[in-house]
Amino acid sequence: MKNSQIHEGLPNKEIRDFLSLGIVKSYANYYNRLNEPLPNTNTLKGFDWTIARIKRDIKMLNIELDHVNELKSIQYIIKNQGWAEYDVSDETIKDLDYSLHMNFIGTEEEYNNLMKKL
């Protein structure tokens, strides 16, 4: 089964897909933004280099904070629906343009039914 089809036939399929894809996109955005290099030691020395490094670290921490807040919000919605997140990456074919698989969002019973299909 293709990864993008894991919620087919379930109530609120669009919401489940949105939440699952939101997790994937949050990780993709997070990792794509984490590649800021350290300041150049050829142009900055001493305190100036340290200040530039601290500013870079603050920027990286803010990126991480945004990512964790996104995931926290998605998990809050998932739990409020009475659902959980299940990794089905070993059982599905990744057919999205992202490096990660979509996770299954649903109840344990729905997850067990999906696993029987796979």
Descriptive notes:
With 118 residues, the chain is mostly helical. It has one domain (3-117). The chain contains three helices and two strands. Helix 1 (13-33) packs antiparallel against helix 2 (46-80). The termini are close together.
List its salient traits.
mainly alpha, 3 helices, 118 residues, two-stranded antiparallel ribbon
Q: What does the radius of gyration come to? A: 19 Å
Cα-to-Cα separation, first versus last residue: 7 Å
Reading side by side through the largest sheet, how are the strands ordered? 1-2
Helix content: 55-70%
Going by helix content, strand content and strand pairing, the class is: mainly alpha
* Spans where pLDDT lies below 50 across 5 or more residues: none
Count every helix, treating DSSP H or I runs of 4 or more residues as helices.
3
Task: Provide a brief overview of the structure.
With 118 residues, the protein is mostly helical. Helix content is 56%, strand content 5%.
Q: What is this structure's SSE topology?
A:
Blueprint: H1 13-33, H2 46-80, E1 84-86, E2 104-106, H3 108-117
Antiparallel strand pairs: 1-2
Helix pairs in contact: 1-2
